[in-house]
Amino acid sequence: MERKGAQRHRVLELLEEHGGLAPGVAKRIEAETGVPEADIYGVATFYTLVARPGAKTRVCQGLSCMMAGAAEKLAELEAAGVPHEAVSCLGQCDRAPVAVDADLELVAWGPRGGVSPDDSELPMNLAGTDDPSWPALARAKVLGRDAVLAELKASGLQGRGGAGFPAHFKWDAVRREAAETKYVVVNADEGEPGTFKDREVMLRRPHLMLEGMAIAAWLVGASDAYIYIRGEFTRPLRQLRAAIAEADWGDLRVHVVTGHGAYICGEETALLEALEGRRGMPRLKPPYPTQQGLWGKPTLMNNVETLACVPAIVHRGGAWFKDQGRTEPGSKLYCISGDVERPGVYELPLGATLDELVEAAGGYVGTPKAFSPGGASSGFLPMSLRDTPLDFGHLAKVGSMLGSAGVVVLSEAVSMVDAAKWQAVFFEDESCGQCAPCRIGCRMQRQALDRFREGDAKALANVEAVAWEMDQGSICGLGMVASLPLTSAMKHFPDELG
Ligand SMILES: Cc1cc2nc3c(=O)[nH]c(=O)nc-3n(C[C@H](O)[C@H](O)[C@H](O)COP(=O)(O)O)c2cc1C
Ligand code: SF4
User: Fold this and answer.
1) For labelling, which of 169, 251, 274, 474 has a CA lying 20 to 30 Å from the CA of 268?
2) CATH number of residue 250's parent domain
3) Which domain holds residue 483?
């Protein structure tokens, strides 16, 4: 039971201010917020960045970083006596292998890597103007809410956060809610290994996203907009804050909240829990956030890239946006990393193929063997499927997904057993643990892979049955797809995992 007047939403902010869960901190925060000490402890232990305070180098263990020697980097730090820890993903796959220092500033060891954070150019335009006077918002107000919604519908814009849900449905649903208080939330938590496009939008084109957010807030009638940005994105955060300071927000209150190192907080309802100061555990749906979201109020949540597409749709019309795509509407920011010459973010028509994307990224390194088309959740595909359009529908048909479009290329030099293991470790570490099939299934699959690597030929016999349990018995998308890296590797690479 919450104490009267308790300021739960301040708990994470205060934990950060106090430097994490050091001795005595939970008691002090209890005094400041009225939230019981045990509860504060429970919240703090959920989040990597506050659970284990103390200066240390955090080394990324994501797929691209592991392929580029992250394990060796950890061993070097260990040998040199440098305080360190392994973390799931830092969203810097194009500069792999990477770490962050005690201030969360980037340490990039990568020999390749595309564009540096200081370069002004990037093969990305999203067609809007990065203009703090926000001409698209002014135009939207001239057109009126119905007309803007109609353009959004005509554009066919599908959410770019992973599920590909039509944007206009959610906007319309929140607009129709009768509640006096409504919120807009920007999901800038980008934490899936392979994915780093939202980072680039915030770093280089922050006004595109902010203007899209302002248009959304105006259209649905929101009083407040929250931007939940992952804590390790220090540089994009600075850019974002500078851009926010440049704009005239009128009546809209804008709040920037930084994440604390939990991938699951990218899931929309876990994100809402985190904003409310709780452990980031996904909620049961329905009710959907559009009905009962932040503090029970109707909430529109969109991904950074989704919102960044909106100004151009308002300026140039829905039909124009739709035409930018090939097999599905619009252009798309694809992330590419792994065994390619120039890892980075490239904007191509939605439905481009792997070869086209890799050509934009300077070509393959070595002989390609496999690719993961949409982050860890999308599993692995063989090169025989290289012509599959990288879109939501075609990838679903081959048992994969576009997800957040974090494409990783694996050359013949990479063992599929290792690759499946790195992804399994990721999901085991990042499961929030509230559903038994996900919590136990993630562990069983990782353990099965360990036994297989040690020579137990029958170790993978029950993987499919466990995967079925996980898919059927999980509340959220993490548990539903966590077995895909292993099951897809077994299906497509039987020589290595047969
Ligand atoms: C485990 C998990 C992690 C997710 N992580 C993100 C994320 O980092 N960023 C994001 O925008 N959406 C993420 N999503 C999808 C969100 O739940 C939600 O669908 C999205 O923010 C909605 O925005 P959109 O409609 O603009 O795509 C994640 C979903 C799951 C299941
Ligand atoms: S499926 Fe996994 S991550 Fe999702 S709510 Fe259940 S335990 Fe948590």
Assistant:
1) 251
2) 3.40.50.11540
3) 416-497
